[in-house]
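Hey, can you fold this one?
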Amino acid sequence: MLENIRISFRSIVLHKMRSFLTMLGIIIGIASIIAIVSTIKGTNEQIKNNLVGAGNNTLTVALCEGDWQYEFQYMGVPIDIPIIDNDTKEQLKELPEVNSLTLMHIRNYADGIFRGNAMVSGIQMIGIESNYLDVAGLSMRSGRGFVDSDYANFKKVAIVDEKASKMIFGSDSPLGKTIDIYGEPFTIVGVAGDIIKFEPVINTIDDYYMFSGRSTGRLFVPISAWPIINSFDEQQSVLLRVKSVDSMTVAGKKAEDILNSRIHNAEEVNSLKYKSDNLLEQAKRLQELSSSTNKMLIWIAGISLIVGGIGVMNIMLVSVTERTREIGLKKAVGAPKKTIMKQFLTEASVLTSIGGILGVLVGIALAFAISKIATAPISISLPAIIISVAFSVVVGLIFGLLPSIKAANLNPIDALRYE
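Sure. Predicted structure:
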């Protein structure tokens, strides 16, 4: 085998230009596939990070009507759906995919927040338990968080995040200032911010409309003060912090099952169910939409590999013709057909392997060039590199088979007499 490889390299070196032109189809095909796969993987990672958020493995399970979150402020408190008690909370905590959880109330678009006579719009209001900030990946930037006495004494205090602080108070410090929430005065005691700073990557207008809604400011009040604002008790939502991004779907489904099993007279309220905001599943759907288009490009790029393989077969047939006397001499001294076949198959495989390696290098360079020119994210895929090189070897074996069979079947006498 080593001798066959040595002979193959010698033949390639002797015919440099011919060998390079033969490999060109393989190089172009492999380079195209590497560049496309790298772009697909980079785009998919961007979609995943944009939706899920880097390092923040949280998901919300909320009461929904159909596909939309139930709006308590407009539709009232539904009957036959109990609030989440401690036993249910413990069941959720015991899920193997869950690290921690907290209960909360949410108004995604609170319309009753005023500073003086000016209404503040675009604020998400959340009634939180004492461990909410830890579960949600938030920390205090200034002031203080909620303490036990705030919950025990139903104090009308609030925390804003950095975005809400700018929206309501501009550059002024919000600490100690009072805002009106649905007719009740609340004092701002702290400003919170995300522990891990993350902003979605916006490359297109579609990205802007998809992710711009995630920049809503948040205002937090103690969960015990929620009935003061809304004048009634209501079912809570659950915020889960899971152990990994990949376990979000499973954790969300299990949490849904636990919470929905507690709904009484389910046949009468079947339009109301707990559902998780399965951002990972949304990301997967977007990734599939992106990948389905790009997979067609991979198949088109694969055609150039077939063209390259035909070029390899053609040059190997030429090589067999050029070396007819050499083949005849080897067969005359007793070389079996198997030996002759191995020699030419090895030469074809070495030729396409070199083309595959060069194609990988060109593909990586091409991927980075596309990233710079089109501002498209890329992620180099090691499995794709390995598979591409292996595939190029297979192409050499397949398209080198016919020339090697022709060489092995030459009549030694006719081969020696060939001019």
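The two ends are 29 Å apart (CA to CA). Let me know if you want another pass with a different chain boundary.
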